[in-house]
Amino acid sequence: MSPKFVAADVAFFKAWEFCTEEERNRLQDLNPNFQQKATGHPCIVLKTDGRYALITTVSAHGSGDYNDWCPPWKRGHPSNWKRRDRYRAFKGTERPHRGRAFLRLSKGAWPKTRGSWVNVETVLLVPVDLLVFFTNAWGFDWYSNRYIPQVDQESFRDLLQHIAEANREWSAMVRRWKELGVPAEEEQPPAPPSRPLPPTPPTTLPKQVVAPSAPSSVGKLSWAMVARG
């Protein structure tokens, strides 16, 4: 089961070769311009709802001891130099200019100190099941110290602001993430057909009981009348 990450956490984005066919198809559906090389890197969780997450990766971008950790904007196409402001660096890694502060962790330092850049134009929408522990973090131990590194909160807010300013897809991706986070409405079972009511028996009025009338005195003579007669 994947660890439960929150915003600003540092995770590791599962490598492409370890993804199932279903997971690969899902990544490509969620990110139309998805590139396999984006996987297999540590990443910063920008937003998450427990099901999906928006992340940005941290990478050396082809730098290493073999090229003296030359930053990506100093090699390749000349346009890389013009777009160098899209990169953010962790402390110890060369910055494109002094106008942007170093990114910082809340505790400890980034393990690859000379080659750790974030490209703010690279934001991915991924299922959280593809995020695992970043085991190369300083001090991480599977048995005694399985902690999750986190970007310093002030540094994290600065990074989010930079992404919102420089990444033209950011707003659309946030909307898409919110839509995916809304659980589908559960289908209500159809209402059972109404049963016809039993016929109402006709109402019968009780028969009216007629009280017997008092005996009439007409035609009857009393003994007093006979005596007088």
Give a quick set of tags describing it.
single chain, 229 residues, alpha+beta, 5 helices
How much helical structure, as a percent, in the residues? 10-25%
Order of helices and strands: EHEEHEEEEHHH
By DSSP, the count of extended strands is 7
Give the terminus-to-terminus CA distance: 126 Å
Category from helices, strands and their pairing: alpha+beta
Q: Which residues sit in consecutive blocks of at least 5 with pLDDT less than 50?
A: 184-191, 217-229
Note the beta-strand portion.
5-15%
Outline = globular
Supply Rg. Answer: 41 Å
Largest beta-sheet details: 7 strands, antiparallel
How many helical elements? Answer: 5
**Overall pLDDT level:** 84
Biased composition (Pro residues): 189-204
Region (Disordered): 183-217
Describe this structure in words.
By secondary structure, this protein is an alpha+beta fold. It has five helices and seven strands. The protein has helices at 21-30, 79-82, 153-166, 170-181, 223-228; strands at residues 10-13, 42-48, 52-59, 87-89, 117-119, 124-127, 131-132. Strands 1, 2, 3, 4, 5, 6 and 7 form a seven-stranded antiparallel beta sheet that branches. The chain is globular, with a radius of gyration of 41 Å. It starts with 9 loop residues before the first strand and ends with a helix. 24% of the residues are buried. Mean pLDDT is 84; it is low at 184-191 and 217-229.
